[in-house]
Design a protein that fits this description.
The complex is a heterodimer. By secondary structure, chain A is an all-alpha fold. Chain A has eleven helices and no strands. By secondary structure, chain B is mainly α. Helices cover about 75% and strands about 0% of the residues of chain B. In chain B, helix 1 packs antiparallel against helix 2 and helix 2 runs antiparallel to helix 3. The chains are: A mainly alpha, B mainly alpha. At the A-B interface, helix 1, helix 2, helix 3, helix 4 and helix 7 of A face helix 1, helix 2 and helix 3 of B.
Chain lengths: ~240, ~100
């Protein structure tokens, strides 16, 4: 970065605070819609952190994939699965929000990771064992020169790497996306009552089999009156 | 302390990861659980890019890895939401306590 160090540090702390605040809001806010909007805030500040880390391409991809795509998909999910007030058939009270054990486990994880960061030379030794020996010492010492090269040719370097060294993972990622798309369509496809009616007509007209194969199975288990309502639905739709 | 280095980014990702971990374990709404998984994946992404920036700058493999994580998390979120919607049709709720068919 060729900005002033003060500005760099200031923006790091500002975006870090925004990010942590947004993440806490996602976890702790009572309304799920506000959680989704705070998740958007978190994603945008994470992309700002990527810009600070000399990764403008990752920042743009973060905005495109997470801040735009994923947040919209999550809000669609919230809309489609709106939490109606649920009548518990057994009549139990809803248990209170369960937080003691998660808080203990995540605090222990936090403590362990901070200890690993603070432990003398643990991170540095691991890094030097893994990476430093592969870096040419001349280029590693001239830090400013490397950064200038990277900001100029970073994007094309990413493209070259994706299509040379990481070609097979790249193609596998595209197959994965295609499979995920097909799987999402098949999983969330509504089962049309007409098809169910044809199926039951093929199997037989007895009431038992009708009850087994009909859209009654789509109804929530254990909710009183569910079979009646679906019966009504079928009559309205003219399928029987 | 004010000067930002690799350790500041690592500490930030540690905090973000633990917030996501707490959310995954404590949230009762399944959509919020998906959001918290995304928070944890993002923490890992920042970690990769930070190591790439501070440790090994003339190879951009860290950024490539974070692109792959981005892809996988997009696939995971879409399939996860589809599963949630299919579950919602069966159990008119996205409360995690209601998905107890496999419990004894």
């Amino acid at each position: 970065m060729d900005t002033s160090p003060f500005l760099y540090n200031l923006s790091f702390w500002a975006f870090a605070a925004l990010m942590i605040g947004g993440a806490l809001g996602v976890v702790l806010h009572r309304s799920i819609v506000y959680s989704a909007l705070l998740l958007l805030v978190t994603f945008l500040s994470i992309s700002a952190i990527f810009v600070l880390l000399n990764a403008p391409f990752i920042a743009a991809a973060q905005i495109l994939v997470y801040a735009v795509g994923l947040t919209i998909v999550l809000i669609f999910g919230i809309m489609l699965t709106g939490d109606k007030p649920f009548v518990d058939p057994v009549g139990q009270e809803r248990p209170k929000r369960f937080w003691m054990i998660p808080a203990a486990v995540s605090a222990a994880t936090l403590g362990f990771l901070v200890w690993a960061l603070m432990a003398p030379n643990l991170v540095a030794n691991t890094i030097s064992g893994l990476f430093i020996q592969q870096v040419d010492p001349a280029t590693a010492s001239s830090l400013a020169g490397v950064q200038a090269i990277q900001t100029d040719a970073g994007l094309s370097h990413i493209g070259q790497l994706l299509f040379s060294k990481y070609l097979i993972p790249f193609e596998l990622a595209s197959i994965l996306l295609l499979l995920a798309m097909i799987g999402a369509i098949i999983l969330s496809k509504r089962q049309f009552p007409e098809e169910e009616g044809q199926l039951t007509a093929l199997v037989g007209e007895s009431d038992q089999q009708d009850a087994l194969n009909s859209p009654d199975m789509m109804q929530p288990l254990g909710v009183p009156g569910s079979s009646d309502s679906s019966q009504n639905e079928k009559e309205v739709l003219g399928v029987h | 302390m004010f000067e930002v280095g690799l350790y500041h980014y690592l500490g930030l990702t540690v905090i973000l990861f633990c917030i996501g971990l707490y959310g995954v374990m404590s949230s009762r709404n399944a959509i919020r659980l998906l959001m918290c998984i995304e928070l944890m994946l993002n923490a890992v992404n920042i970690n990769l890019v930070a190591f790439n920036n501070y440790v090994n700058m003339n190879d951009l493999s860290g950024q490539i890895f974070s692109i792959f994580i981005l892809t996988v998390s997009a696939a995971e979120a879409s399939v996860g939401l589809a599963i949630l919607i299919a579950l919602y049709r069966k159990r008119v709720s996205v409360d995690m306590e209601r998905f107890n068919l496999l419990k004894w």
